[in-house]
Amino acid sequence: MALSGDMKILAVALTLAASLTPVGPLGELTGLAVERVRVADLVAAAKFGTTQPIDDPAREQVVLDGVRARSAELGLDPENAVRFFRAQIEANKLVQRGLHARWTAHPEEVPDRRPDLGTEVRPVLDRLTTDILAELKDTTSVRHPSLRCEIHATLAERSAVVLHRLDRLHEDALAEAMSTVCS
Ligand SMILES: C=C(O[C@@H]1C=C(C(=O)O)C=C[C@H]1O)C(=O)O
User: Fold this and answer.
1) I need a labelling partner for 134 at 20 to 30 A (CA). Which of 34, 83, 109, 165 fits?
2) Domain-located, residue 167
3) Nearest of 31, 25, 126, 129 to residue 76 by alpha carbon
4) How many A from CA of 11 to the centre of ligand 1?
């Protein structure tokens, strides 16, 4: 089907928006936090209708132990990095709980396919851990507790919501994920 002129412009705008990074020095980090809260949809789909609980303290410990060890190697403050990742984990669980509630109320919205948590989903989160740690390193000088940092964080977050057209659940999760960024 041929697209009308307006539709073509819309298609180009959407393609551009999808490839854009949230604004400012915290843009890349915020973009990675967005990716992580989006992967939570896959985690939720992997667990929904199974006995696998949303909260998995053993897996969280593995993630946080890895963060602590690699922060030290990178010259990052391990406790600061762990605090940031605890927020990523809370954000992820917020999305999982929200989607499970939604799918329980609206079974017709349950995804058709259940991804495999161990082989398909956690490896994506592990890759994001590496990328987020590198960004934490790159943004160390911006992330001191200051009004400047809070302004950059707000701008990056607001632009991410628009660029990625986040719904309310993912917007709330992103706010949680970024809650400790200036510290
Ligand atoms: C993502 C998962 O669900 C929860 C969130 C985690 C995370 O964000 O890294 C880790 C463990 C779980 O408490 C998972 O089980 O892998």
Assistant:
1) 165
2) yes
3) 129
4) 34
